[in-house]
Design goal:
The chain is of the alpha+beta class. It has 3 domains: 2-102, no CATH class; 106-159, CRO Repressor (2-Layer Sandwich), CATH 3.30.240; 169-193. The chain has 10 helices and 4 strands. Strands 2-1-3-4 form a 4-stranded antiparallel β-sheet. A hairpin with a 5-residue loop joins β3 (144-149) and β4. α2 packs across α6 (70-93). The longest helix is centred in the last third of the chain and has 29 residues, at 164-192. It is elongated, with a radius of gyration of 29 Å. The termini are far apart. The relative contact order is 0.10.
């Protein structure tokens, strides 16, 4: 029994190293994802998903080192969670730094027009954008007024709607048609009676 608890809770590497490793990997991954852009976070295609899953497995040993103990894994996990909590709290209080680290939103469709330059910057093809739009409940890009790719990888899409002047014009024409029909009905009654 002593041997089992020794393997579970004895750290083969120093505690400070167990804490520093996850912090370094965390900072490295945040910077790496910032450099490679929002596309990786949006998980647009199977290739991006494979990269993200492989990335976690690739850095696993960098986080835990030669330690397979339960205590080592728990220390690594707690360190990652505490580091993330501190970073999120810090960035919440320092919005400008948050904007610098996260980047700015990318407007992929503006006023109903696809912005090829922004799509190229974010490495998003028209087919991928079409797929995103359909997943959001639209029939296609032609129904979209604006589409923004947020720094966190979320898409914010606004449906095209006719301008207020067109809506009012259509309502006015409908009322005129109704009045014309009512006048024609009154004229028929007068002529018949």
């Amino acid at each position: 029994m002593h041997e089992i608890t020794t393997h579970l809770f004895t750290l083969p590497i120093p505690l400070l190293e167990k804490i520093v490793r996850p912090i370094i990997v965390y900072v490295f991954l945040v910077l790496l994802l910032r450099v490679f852009g929002k596309r990786e976070l949006a998980q647009l295609n199977p290739f991006d998903l494979v990269v993200l899953l492989s990335l976690s497995n690739t850095v696993q040993n960098a986080i835990i080192g030669d330690d397979n103990s339960l205590a080592g894994g728990m220390i690594g996990a707690i360190t990652l969670l505490v580091t993330n909590y501190i970073v999120v709290r810090f960035l919440f209080k320092h919005r400008r730094l948050d904007e610098v680290l996260e980047g700015k939103p990318a407007t992929l469709i503006k006023d109903g027009h696809v912005r090829k330059d922004e799509m190229a910057r974010e490495l998003i093809t028209t087919a991928e954008l079409q797929s995103v739009v359909r997943r959001q409940g639209f029939d296609g890009i032609h129904e979209v007024e604006n589409c923004v790719l947020e720094p966190g990888g979320a898409f914010v899409i606004k449906r095209k709607s006719p301008p207020l002047d067109e809506v009012r014009h259509a309502e006015l024409l409908q009322r005129l048609d109704t009045l014309t029909a009512q006048i024609a009905a009154v004229e028929q009654k007068l002529a018949a009676g």
